[in-house]
Amino acid sequence: MANLWTCDIPISYLSQHPASLVVTRALMIVKGLFCLTAVPVLILGMKCTRFISNKNHQKFRCSITAGILFLLGGLAGGVALLWYAVDTVQKYHLEVGLGVPGVTYELGYSYWFSTTGAICAASAALLLLSVNCVGSTTERGRKPPSAAQALKEKQRSAEGPGQTYL
Question: Does residue 125 lie within any of the structural domains?
């Protein structure tokens, strides 16, 4: 017997539904909360903002935290969307195989928009983490300048702006 859903207005989006749908919706809510939390943290960590000082690498820590929050949001959304897609495709094949008339499950536009959002969140996380981690290792792993390079830099700063002599 097929479960038929009507167009009644639900009291809650998380009640009276199959467990897989409730978990999918809950994971999408978690994804939204992680990503919304990551945006202000990312703004605090930008080099061009002056909300916090850069003492003790606070902006670096904010950027890394925003990257981790975006990554957690992207992963939560990816798990939810993958779970929903597998469940929907299985229901579709079952209905087509049994020849159930009138009821069909398909992936709609909201699924594809949510997929795009999860991919964007995960991409933002990977870019933030890779740029910050690569930038921090090059600064820490940089060799001190040689005496000749230090002398050239000192001469350039003594010449003043806009004056370069070879």
Answer: yes
**Token pair of 137, please?**
């290792």
Per-residue DSSP letter, 8: P
pTM, 2 dp: 0.69
- Nearest to residue 96, comparing CAs of 81, 109, 106? 106
Q: Is residue 135 a part of any domain in this protein?
A: yes
H or E element in which residue 132 lies: helix 109-140
pLDDT 10s digits, 81-137: 999 888 888 888 888 888 776 666 778 888 899 999 999 999 999 999 998 887 665
Distance CA 28, CA 34 (A): 10
For CA atoms 31, 34, 37, 43, the dihedral sign is negative
Residue 126 lies in a domain: yes
> Which tokens hold the place of 157?
């700063």
Q: Which CATH number does the domain housing residue 152 bear?
A: 1.20.140.150
Range of the domain at 72: 19-159
